[in-house]
Design a protein that fits this description.
The complex is a heterodimer.
Chain A (H helix, E strand, L loop, with lengths): L2 H9 L8 H16 L2 H46 L5 E8 L2 E8 L2
Chain B lengths: L2 H11 L3 H23 L2 H17 L10 H19 L1 H15 L9 H14 L2 H12 L4 H8 L3 H21 L5
Helix pairs in contact in B: 1-2, 2-3, 2-4, 3-4, 4-5, 4-8, 5-6, 7-9, 8-9
């Protein structure tokens, strides 16, 4: 098969015909999409919403995870401040189901 | 670019949707034919034709008027098809399988003209997308290699090579009438 035969054979492949109605309506269908680019809007809005939702969840997670740590540190600072006034006493930190406590006892 | 296209492009740039609709009407057959030959599917060809014109409208500001409007439009359409190929790799494989199946039935002397056309279309679909684009532009649309290179954003040598490689494969497949990779 030479080039000419190949080209002739390829050119004999028809493009399926569409109705006159289709060709008449197609430009309008494109024009409608120019006015209402729904697909584009979907493409731009949904990722933003997903990012916003993800960030909100991450913020909530961090808040819930770090809040107890904050309370413990706050308690510890308070304990240390009070214990500094009692340098001659034995001090022990204790944690139970009610939270952080400390014990103060006289040194023997 | 014809004077008519030039005026319509100018109006479209100013947001005149009716002028753009006329541009679509003038070039819709050409774009549909190209997207059909690139995909082998009427439905996908229609989607890609729509995408081509919507992109063209969005990018109208980047059209410098130095080239023909149709060449610029070809470029958008071809790249939409090439991107579609990347996004639809699974579907591409399905088309390739289908094409292989069609080619696996040898075309004998009694084969109808339709059968031969089907085999040629199947062979076209089996080509790598960039080689198919080179064949569609140069054989079906009559662009020379320099014009095709501008459309495909590559060198003229690359186009020549793609056309050469594609023709070699097509000749082998269509002569054998058998699927071979």
């Amino acid at each position: 098969m030479n080039d000419r035969e190949l080209e002739s054979r390829l050119k004999n492949v028809p493009v399926p015909q569409r109705s006159a109605e289709y060709w008449n309506d197609f430009p309008s269908s494109v024009r409608v999409q120019l006015r209402h680019p729904v697909a584009t809007r979907r493409r731009t809005v949904w990722p933003r919403l997903a990012w916003a939702g993800g960030l909100a969840f991450a913020g909530l997670f961090l808040f819930l995870a770090l809040w107890p740590v904050h309370l413990v540190l706050k308690n510890e600072r308070m304990f240390r401040h009070q214990l500094a006034d009692l340098p001659q006493h034995l001090r022990t930190f204790m944690a139970d189901e009610h939270g952080m406590h400390y014990l103060v006892a006289d040194k023997e | 670019m014809t004077d008519a296209d030039h005026d319509l492009v100018s109006l479209s740039r100013r947001g005149d949707a009716a002028a753009f609709e006329t541009l679509v009407r003038n070039h819709q057959h050409m774009v549909h034919a190209l997207t059909y030959r690139m995909t082998g599917s009427l439905a996908d060809a229609e989607d890609l034709a729509q995408e081509t014109f919507i992109r063209a409208y969005d990018q109208m500001g980047s059209f410098n008027g130095g080239a023909k409007f149709s060449t610029w439009l070809y470029s958008i359409a071809v790249h939409a098809c090439l991107n579609w190929r990347r996004n639809e790799a699974r579907r591409f494989r399905a088309h390739a399988d289908c094409a292989g199946e069609m080619l696996s039935h040898p075309v004998n002397g009694e084969a109808t003209r339709d059968g031969m056309a089907q085999a040629a279309q199947a062979a076209l679909l089996r080509l790598p997308a960039k080689q198919r684009a080179a064949i569609v532009l140069t054989i079906y649309d009559g662009l020379n290699h320099a014009e095709a290179a501008r459309v495909l954003h590559c060198s003229e040598t690359t186009v020549s090579w793609r056309v050469f490689a594609a023709k070699r494969k097509l000749k082998r497949w269509l002569s054998d009438g058998r699927a071979s990779s």
